[in-house]
Design brief:
Helix content is about 55%, strand content about 15%. It is of the alpha+beta class. Helix 2 packs antiparallel against helix 5.
Length: about 110
């Protein structure tokens, strides 16, 4: 599972630009969560398509957390591999790629 979560909301509220609000932060989380979801679906290896279709996106904490996770029971085996199968990461590379954009978007809100 990959998460984009905002921690330290009080510090964040103090640091936001005059015109930025927590709703702006929620928009950034929503946008980046959606992009992470799309990237994971593009990167996942496809045999039958079940794993790709099982990748879901959920928003929690009032929109301050985006969770992308594959619900297929074998999703972790594909991501991390087994002794019989090499790893074919799709969540971690997607998260690493999206993390840079998320941090950039958040910096724009506080500068």
């Amino acid at each position: 599972m990959a998460n984009i979560k905002i921690e330290g909301l009080e510090e964040l509220q103090k640091a936001l630009k005059k015109n930025a609000t927590l709703n702006d932060v929620k928009k950034v989380v929503k946008q980046n969560g959606s992009e992470l979801h799309k990237k994971a679906q593009r990167k996942v290896p496809v045999d039958t398509g079940t794993l790709k279709r099982s990748i879901g996106l959920e928003f929690t904490d009032g929109g301050m957390t985006a969770e992308v996770d594959a619900t297929a029971e074998y999703g972790e085996y594909v991501e991390y591999g087994t002794r019989f199968q090499r790893a074919q990461p799709y969540i971690r590379p997607s998260l690493e790629e999206q993390e840079r954009q998320f941090k950039s978007d958040m910096r724009k809100l506080v500068k």
